[in-house]
Request: fold
Amino acid sequence: MTMAKRSIYIVVSEGASERTYLQVLRSFLVNRMPLGEDFQPRLNFIPKVTNGGEGGGSFPLVRKTYLACRKSDRRTPIAVWVDVDIYVRNATATERRNAQAYAKKGSLPDFLFSVMNFEDFLALHFDDDLFEQWYALFKGAGHFDRPLNGVDYAPLFAPIWAEHVTRFGISDVMYFKGDLPVDFVSHETLCNLMRHVSDPRMHVFFRKYAGAQTFPEFLASCLKEQYLDVWGA
Reply:
């Protein structure tokens, strides 16, 4: 089977959580998946964070980081991966400014949003049972109609996360921003991601709050393109 040309992307993202995920993903691709002819992973995401802490997804920081990356590298494709909640909630002046600025983003590429936030992206990696628990719980909490704030989201997400890592035999069940178990990304969890991305309920959800493509959809399409011999078309 002919392999697609190796893909490298700079990923402008908002903080430590996204950077850590991309590092864990790369470790899995290097150590567990077929390599390219140059013995490098067929797919490589290079994380460039806007901010190590809170507020890193705000439009001015994203724009500044994107332009700096483009100035230093004119050729490598750049993807922008940030949470959508602070662009659609419109609960504060900052959130309203984000939405207004993004609507006039000019030459910047369409953002590849996590819908709604990073933890929702993680939930796509869960097995079918936990994914259904997550979907039912957060739909009931109104999260899919209006994104919850972190203080309200965290206590709902924590027990589902704890059950996920327990099923994978990981001893530390607490969830911390910017930290992931080194084996969070696996063939199984990526299969879960690709399956749940195709769930019609998620498609409706994605299109309600994002553009042509979300980051999980982008990731799934890249994996399928570069690893046809593993996952098929």
